[in-house]
Amino acid sequence: MNKPIGKVLVVIVLFSFALSGCYYFSAKKEIANAERLFSELKGSGGEKLAPYEYCSAEKFLEVSKVEFADGDYKPAKGFAERSKSASEAGLAVVKEK
């Protein structure tokens, strides 16, 4: 194998590992934030006051954890973001009532 080609391949492999590691940590952080917001929604009575948002946030969080456990970090982050969004909407509904 040609030396310059070998160096390029090594750089590409290292770069891909770095990107996959970034998704791991960002997904983990998003899941933690989604859990915090969901727990806040649950504690403020969101199950009865904002049932649609509560159910959405709960299910998106569950799917996010399953995706994370399967090693699919990018979808896990996306579902955690959707859970966060649903929790925030639910908290807004609870504060209105």
Question: How many structural domains?
Answer: 1
Helix share, percent: over 70%
Largest sheet: none
Low-confidence stretches: none
**Overall mean confidence score, pLDDT:** 90
Radius of gyration: 19 Å
Question: Structural class given helices, strands, pairing?
Answer: mainly alpha
The string of secondary-structure elements, in order, is HHHH
**Portion in strands:** under 5%
**SS field, number of helical segments:** 4
Task: Give the CA-based shape.
Answer: rod-shaped
Q: How many distinct beta strands?
A: 0
Distance between the termini: 69 Å
List keywords for this structure.
single chain, 97 residues, mainly alpha, 4 helices, rod-shaped
Task: Give a structural overview.
With 97 residues, this protein is mostly helical. The protein has one domain. The protein is 91% helix and 0% strand. The protein contains four helices and no strands. The termini are far apart. The model has no long low-confidence stretch (mean pLDDT 90).
